[in-house]
Automatic annotation (TrEMBL), chains A, B, C, D, E:
GO BP annotations, alphabetical order: glycolytic process
SUPFAM superfamilies noted in UniProt: Aldolase
Keyword list, A-Z: Lyase, Schiff base
Lyase found in the keyword field: yes
EC number: 4.1.2.13
UniProt superkingdom: Bacteria
Protein name (Swiss-Prot/TrEMBL): fructose-bisphosphate aldolase
Length: 309, 309, 309, 309, 309
């Protein structure tokens, strides 16, 4: 399938990347109902690791089965499906070639002692991603944690290997840890900083959270106020984060967080769209709903990103 | 030996695995008196490491000899025998080809200072397993320990190497450590979580403990109650754990714990069977009994798994 | 382009280096408006990592775009442009061959918990530098930090690899950490020590801060007073630092620090020149000003280093 | 030299080992005055590391010279000589081929701060052992120390390499550290546990201390009392330790400890012999005595192991 | 140049070393005015790292230039010159082949926080030493530090690599750290222990400090008194240290410490000579004096070692 101009434009920003990586990005950008628009919706299913199976899947027990999620992402016409090793292995053959896959290569869980540094374990390799036919690896960093620098070193090495082997890298940039207050984790200065760090580390796709208008760091607060940076609306904040992502030269998708009402999900998507963001990475809000309801929501989101809603 | 349909069905779930790993799983599933049924009984003898020799073997001194356990597993018609390096080396030639072996690749002991993080030492390699003719490696993880993430990283690397070399991986998923209360170690939410983590890490066979109806994590408790998840009986709890093991796409065996009365052991097995579990991994309850008594018990257990008792 | 005598003289000091490294140094020394003079101005843009995007770029929003900095360095006729991986990747192709590049291979950030040891993460490799067409790698060390020795080991290994592959090494030697008071970080004894350590570690180009006449270490203070070392003026202090850089056998550039008035920037440059330093590495004072103003300032600095102002 | 039946029997227990390792064991078992009896006396000289030179050698100053110990082991007709790298290097050529050598590959010393975890440094490699013509490597583990698991991992890796290269492994299993009381270090339950751990780690020869009838671990004490395990005499305790060494399938030698009276040394040897142990590893009690006295004592010990005294 | 009998005798003690290492030792022993005598004077210049540039070189500013030290060592007719990477690189070509070089491969500095473990950073590699044409690597260990065991492991690995590549190893054995009092650092029992440890680690040349008659370790004190070890004079203490260096089978040179009066330096050398030591490693006492004065002193020292003064 020939890449659209929009997609070719985006690919042109990745000017230091080899054809393998560009091809992987292109596959994701051209796949599904948003294919060719430069917008993306990705289904991530790592909550089994993060929150455990019952909290993740009991509200919609069909979702205990790894095949469920492949099928959901395919049927909804999403751009890609992201999950840890075991989840992908359990369906990689059945669904081979039907949906671009992102191997989530590190993971945390709810059984980590509270006093331990915020950190994740590397639970899959670049070669695993190749072997399973993935288009990208995914990796979480926790800027703000005492384990943060080490996580940066891990993804730097892994990214280099992945890129050399023709895989794109998606960085989940989630500020967390001793350096931050709870409000700070979603503050706009922190969100923009998170996007910047991921970009500097060489992420091809950056995943951050939507932010509030809280400003966490006093030194930053001063600059936001002096320079009158507009952070008054979600769309404005998305726009600011896109600036921090090399002035839009990097793809940024925004995560949805815990399950909530559909209209709230739609509002988020409109803000992402209006702020120039590239799309959503949306897990619990889809797979915890009954399948038909989830398909409907995803269809609506696609319409929003297409500017039809 | 041609694999039965049941075994072929199980093997089909391991869709990302190479023929070497599937062959290793098949050898274990087709071996012994339960061969072909999809059920398994495994004899594990790592208590010499865990509790020391006298606590493990003095009740039945013949068991000090490593040959004893090979012979017991063979004579009882079990599916596999699991032990640390030294134990396997001491009989690997005499019993070569007579019983599938699982090399337990990490081990703890009772001399670790109480204040140290719950952890194990890696005491054997994948190449050791190949050299000894094993079908799988075994590895313990302690979700809940401050060493947990590091253990996940260790087994992730080892599993990748083992699978590339045609060996299956059995994960002993034993929640333990600072994050958990004593009751929490056997709580049903924790047991299901343990199964899920092992599955996500890519375990081919998951070993967890039977659980109680205690719920440890407040966030999880809420979901169990809201969703009215049935955890009222041992069989129901086994069934829930099988859900957590990719809806039954992964083999799960349950461990027996300390020596206890035969009827209690049989009750456990019936619950495992009725809940859809794949079988038992049973050590002290067999090798600490006199040989004839142990053979009788294992024969009874086989009957239970065959649905005859 | 034939190297000038001045540059040949400087290159002759690197007597243990292979032609690859000498060629890389020569490219930087011969490039731009100061080419051939033995003086250098380098544009470093790692503040996005260090201080976050808004504090770095909001005063001059065009600077959010990585291309801006390449163009600024090229248009101003500087010797080299230094930045982290992501920044270079975003423009490496567009500007290929137009400006010598230094890949800043480690980075800190403002989200590191205050109580953590002063340290940086390695976020790029020597092979990344080769792949992007860089002339050098850049690396920060923090003498005075409890992580200092480890940083020395990291750069020692990286320098060896870089030199073997024909890349020069620039060391940012920034004393910081438990061993130093705030004033001590810019004390003259510490600045000279920082230059000496970088030289001993094998730096080809040393970046230190301009210093004050404060003396931090009591043992050193005694010697400075006994030997009547002249530290009364900035030029004298630069001269002393050049002594510490193997009596001028190593290139030393001085950093400018936070944004300040133009005349203050010019005074600094005159002191560097008069003290025999090799030049400036100047970031915030240029890219945080409007482009025309920055170009004017850089032009003035070039004149100063040429002895015309 | 043809191996005796006794030695062939012992070698047959090492059923997973390659001919290289069996050959190395055979060389030690067939060497010296006890050659062929299945009994061994080994001279270990690592006290220079452990206690320093004066405490080790001043009582018999000839022993400062590394050649002294080679000659002593040869003249006394011992099975093997064990020492750290430097000691072996200083005589390896002069005495090449005259006595099987064991390279002690890790070492502690009396200058380690008291509050540091009980640990040793790896001070030689498997390749060093090959290069020097050794038959085995020696390695100390400290079960009970917070560094214990790490030591297990070190020897597991080193043992695998050594065995692949045809060298046997001798493990000095010395319980020590935070988990143990001073009395516990020589308690019989701990000694048996130490033997078991070394066997499980794959030691070909196990070195433990003679024990007392103290029982350290409450859980173990209960079993010893319930099962009425005989620990009343030193010979009985040796017998119990041989059980713990895979029911005698592994060679166990017992160490003598600090210098003491000859009759006490002889009593120890008789207990080892009567309990079915394989022999002594005896350092200070020989090299701290005048040479003639030491040769006499070793001759007497050989007679004891031959059943003549 | 044919090695003298004295040198051949010394080389014969290194009986496990390959011709490469013996050749390197021979080069140093046969070089300079003491060539062939079995005595050595080495110029070490690592004070720039240890104490900073001003404390090291301000008393004799010509010494800021790395060339100064090469020339001094050559003109004085010393056996070898030892320095960190940067210092050697700055003169390695100019002085190639004119003086045997020792690459000091690890280094400490005065900016390490006081509460950090006494440790050094590895700042050069064996391959660096080969590339620069060195005859040996130099490495400091701190027995008595909580980082001591790790330093032993570092030098053990590096020594093995160096020896395999034909380079000798010089160990600076400097007891220091939590286990020792200030007086203990130069106590005779500790000095002898330091020599022994370096010898056991496989040092070809051992560098220790001259000692006092203080006895630090109670267990050792008892033995020194019981055995009436003569430690009454510096010569006697040197003699005892030579015993601890495998009864003189290893070359031991003694360091001079801080700058002091010439007669005191000469007294030290006579004690070293009379006690059978191999010579001096003397830095600050030479390069901190005016060049002519330093040459005079070195000439006098050479006469002392030749027995002429």
């Amino acid at each position: 399938m020939k890449a659209t101009r929009t997609v070719q434009k985006i690919l042109s920003y990745y000017e230091a990347d080899n054809p393998g990586v560009k091809g992987a990005l292109c596959r994701m950008l051209m796949h599904g109902k948003l294919g060719g628009t430069g917008k993306m919706i990705i289904l991530p299913v790592d909550q089994g690791f993060e929150h455990g199976p019952a909290r993740s899947f009991a509200p919609n027990p069909a979702a205990y089965d790894p095949h469920y999620h492949f099928q959901l992402a395919i049927d909804a016409g999403l751009n890609a499906y992201a999950a840890p090793l075991g989840m992908l292995e359990a369906g990689a053959d059945t669904f081979a070639g039907q949906i671009p896959m992102i191997l989530k290569a590190n993971s945390a869980n709810s059984l980590i002692p509270a006093e331990a540094p915020k950190d994740q374990a590397i639970t899959a390799s670049v070669d695993d991603a190749l072997r399973l036919g993935c288009s990208a690896i995914g990796f979480t960093i926790y800027p703000g944690s005492s384990a943060g620098l080490e996580m940066f070193e891990e993804i730097s090495e892994m990214r280099e290997e992945a890129a050399a082997k023709g895989l794109a890298t998606v960085i989940w940039s989630y500020p967390r840890g001793e350096a931050l207050s709870k409000d700070g984790e979603t503050a706009i200065d922190i969100a923009a900083y998170a996007a910047q760090i991921a970009a500097l580390l060489g992420a091809h796709i950056i995943k951050i959270k939507l932010s509030t208008d809280h400003l966490e760091l006093p030194e930053a607060k001063k600059v936001y106020e002096e320079q009158k940076i507009d952070i008054s609306t979600q769309a404005a904040r998305v726009r600011h984060c896109m600036q921090a992502a090399f002035n839009g030269r990097r793809i940024v998708v925004f995560s949805g967080g815990a399950k909530k009402g559909a209209s709230s999900v739609y509002d988020d998507a409109r803000a992402i769209r209006d702020g120039g963001g590239n799309g959503s990475i949306i897990g619990r809000n889809t797979f915890q709903r009954p399948r038909e309801e989830a398909l409907k929501m995803l269809s609506d989101l696609i319409d929003i990103y297409k500017g039809k809603a």
